[in-house]
Design goal:
The complex is a heterodimer of chains A (about 550) and B (about 180). Chain A has about 550 residues and is an alpha+beta fold. Chain A has 15 helices and 17 strands. A nine-stranded mixed sheet of chain A has the order 3-7-8-11-1-12-13-14-15. Chain A has a three-stranded antiparallel sheet with strand order 6-5-16, with no helix packed on it. Chain B is mainly alpha-helical and about 180 residues long. Chain B has a two-stranded antiparallel sheet. Classes of the chains: A alpha+beta (about 550), B mainly alpha (about 180). Chain A: It comes from Denticeps clupeoides (denticle herring).
Chain lengths: ~550, ~180
């Protein structure tokens, strides 16, 4: 054999990001997108964006898909690698039951048709972090097909309308993850860690039913909530448990779809919206100037908010799919139709999995609205924040106050405090019980609503003191003594003679009430004050 | 066995060959094998294997029954070399491939209507489902010991993205290396 044929020609096709060089952007039109408002804007009124997502969700299992090594996020390099993961000869894949159940559960939650018989295939491409040279996936006959992801997002002019949309899911398939590669440009080498190689992934292929970044972001958020509720995936995008690639193109409605580009390297939902919007904008501008959109892969650079072309693929990738010869078809069963002689540990019953489905976010939102009579947009906020719905339900059960009043406190006071200090609900400085106590005091008339807000802020600073104690200490109790109130009201009216001339004016009344509250530091009983003032001003 | 005796005879000439007229090796082999075959039936107790037909049972498939001939274009050769990291080396290699494809084309004569394709002979066996427990891993040393190049428990690989040299460069390289 002629060894001189360039020694070892190592050819590596590029199915994924490798070296990202930041070119000088002088020649690129830098148009910063306003990130605070990701509305669906068409640059050119006729053209619309078309967005499809490819989501890879890492299955929340103890061991990997085809081997018995542990799934863990950060471990010493190559310490969670079995002989099969390293693709040493003589090793064979052995399917993990938990991964099958997770895929079936996810398929059922997304309204898919579960294929009772599914097949495994090999997808061939060369890359250093995939030692076998192929990935075991399910391309021909995946485990679940034809589903629907129903999501909602806040829209409308005031962004308080809950708009429901849906995306068709083409298929859900089980596949292997690849290892991690760390690029060392100085030494011109790549360091490979195979801990992640072989971990089970669910690939969700969605139809291009979306038109902008905001929709995509809302859809991914909903998917995250669903997967977290099911327990099949922890959905943490920053840790790589949920990876999203976007396929973006633009066209005029009615015309055939335009050339699409794939956007990768997105690691948060916010970046997803930005990346998609930028790409749509870029394509529209390009077409307007008479250019042509290339079918390429682009990487999202989060610092600049732009998408940058990666080394483009040499023509279309051909993965040479072939049936996996080491794995027979995966068969699923329904109770009552299991062939005799099968060991129960070898049987996955689809109806059993269906019975184990927990309450999904969409269902929970509706239940909260029905059960507690709150507004849909509040229900949306409750379910969207981790743990907020549980907090709300705890408070409602512990207090006599009506849910409609409680929701105001939870969504406004509590949430704004949490957001200010960037805390999660389970880190809240005011526990659910403490808030319930405060609301009880408000209900029974020990404190006015204005004063109660002050008490809340005090509680936040000193959580160990109870609401009652704070009221006592700061003398925030409700002032309802008629005589005292009369005196104060009189004083206020006398000091604002010009206002009193206009009788029964609501605005004037409110202004006077404001003055009274200022005098009493918000402790005055608003009902009584209003009555007294009305009397005083009408005479 | 007769066969090995023939070969042994070939290696150690029974009597000195005449110096004039050098026989080529292939002719020697043909000569010997003919002698072996001709002598076999009369003196052997070798029973013919019943599973092997005495006369060929297949007919060569006529050209008209086969689909049109597939030519492997230089672009396709390029693509295959890139995808599968094979090296066709020269035109003979490509022709060999084309002949192999032609041979496989004979499968088209078989009627496969209403027949489900078979992926593997295992398709009727049951797929074993393993419990989700950890029983492997923690053997970084074992796994790394075969690698030529490692760095602090990582495998070292060349940087990704090395494209195959373009076709013109490749043929130039081959020219220099051709024996």
């Amino acid at each position: 054999m002629a060894a001189a044929s360039a020694g070892f020609i190592c050819n590596v096709n590029v199915p994924k990001p490798v070296v990202i060089k930041l070119f000088s952007l002088n020649h690129v039109i830098k148009r910063r997108l306003s990130t605070s408002v990701t509305r669906c804007q068409s640059h050119c009124p006729q053209m619309v964006g078309v967005v499809g997502l490819e989501v890879h969700a890492q299955i929340n299992s103890t061991s990997k898909l085809f081997s018995g090594s542990q799934v863990s996020f950060s471990s010493p390099p190559n310490s969670r690698v079995s002989y099969f993961d390293a693709s040493l000869p003589g090793t064979l894949p052995v399917l993990n039951r938990r991964c099958v159940e997770a895929a079936v559960m996810t398929g059922l939650a997304l309204n898919c048709t579960i294929n009772m018989k599914s097949l495994f295939d090999r997808k061939h491409y060369f890359y250093a972090d995939m030692p076998a040279g192929y990935q075991i996936t399910q391309q021909r006959l995946p485990i679940a097909v034809s589903g629907l992801l129903i999501y909602s997002h806040l829209g409308g002019p005031k962004r308080n309308q809950v708009i429901s949309k849906s995306i068709r899911i083409k298929q859900i398939q089980l596949e292997q993850d690849s290892g991690k590669s760390l690029h060392d440009e100085h030494q011109s080498q790549t360091l490979i860690d195979l801990n992640r190689a072989g971990v089970g992934l669910m690939e969700l292929v969605m139809e291009p039913d979306m038109s902008c970044g905001e929709e995509a972001a809302a859809a991914v958020r909903e998917l995250q909530l669903i997967l977290q509720a099911l327990g099949t995936c922890q959905g943490n995008m920053s840790e790589g448990q949920l990876r999203v690639d976007a396929n973006v193109s633009v066209h005029r409605p009615g015309e055939p779809l335009g050339v699409r580009t794939e956007v990768k390297n997105i690691n948060s939902i916010r970046h997803l919206a930005r990346a998609i919007d930028h790409e749509i904008q870029r394509q529209m501008e390009l077409l307007e100037q008479g250019g042509v959109v290339q079918n390429e892969t682009r990487a999202f650079d989060q610092k600049t908010g732009l998408t940058i072309p990666m080394r483009d693929k040499e023509g279309l990738q051909d993965y040479r799919f072939m049936p996996e010869p080491n794995l027979p078809p995966l068969l699923l069963y329904v109770s009552g139709r299991v062939p005799a002689g099968l060991d129960p540990s070898q049987v996955v019953l689809v109806d059993r999995v269906k019975a184990l489905l927990p309450e999904l976010p969409g269902v929970r939102r509706e239940r909260l609205v029905e059960e507690y009579g709150i507004l849909p947009e509040h229900s949306y906020t409750l379910v969207n924040e981790d743990g907020l719905a549980d907090y709300f339900e705890t408070v409602v059960k512990a207090t006599k106050a009506e849910p409609r009043k409680v929701i105001g406190w939870v969504v406004k006071e509590l949430l704004s405090n949490l957001n200010q200090q960037n805390l999660k609900v389970n880190q809240s400085l005011v526990a659910a019980r403490a808030l319930a106590e405060l609301l009880d005091l408000l209900e029974t008339g020990h404190v006015s609503s204005t004063a109660a807000k002050v008490v809340f802020q005090e509680l936040w600073k000193n959580p160990e003191k109870g609401a009652e104690k704070i009221i006592q200490e700061q003398n925030l109790g409700l002032m309802s003594d008629a005589a005292t109130l009369q005196i104060i009201c009189q004083k206020v009216v006398e000091s604002h003679p010009e206002e009193v001339d206009i009788p029964k004016n609501v605005i004037v009344l409110n202004k006077l009430m404001g003055q009274v509250q200022k005098e009493t530091k918000g402790r005055a009983d608003p009902v009584q004050v209003r009555a007294i003032l009305q009397e005083l001003t009408s005479s | 066995m007769r066969g090995s005796q023939c070969v042994a005879a070939l290696l150690r000439p029974a009597r000195p060959w005449p110096r004039r007229g050098v026989w080529s090796l292939s002719r020697r082999v043909a000569h010997h094998s003919r002698r072996c075959l001709n002598s076999a039936p009369s003196s052997s107790r070798h029973v013919h294997n019943a599973k092997v037909p005495r006369t060929p049972t297949w007919q060569p498939v006529h050209e008209t029954l086969l689909p049109p001939v597939i030519h492997v274009s230089p672009d396709l050769v390029d693509k295959l070399e890139r995808l599968a990291l094979v090296d066709f080396r020269n035109q003979e290699g490509v022709e060999c491939l084309e002949k192999a494809i032609r041979f496989a084309d004979q499968l088209h004569v078989v009627n496969t209507e209403f027949v489900e394709p078979m992926d593997s002979v295992l398709e009727d066996s049951s797929l074993y489902l393993r419990e989700d427990t950890v029983h492997e891993g923690q053997c970084a040393e074992d796994v790394l010991q075969l690698a030529k190049n490692t760095l602090e428990e990582y495998f070292v690989a060349p940087p990704g993205n090395i494209p195959l040299p373009k076709r013109e460069e490749r043929s130039a390289m081959l020219k220099n290396s051709e024996f």
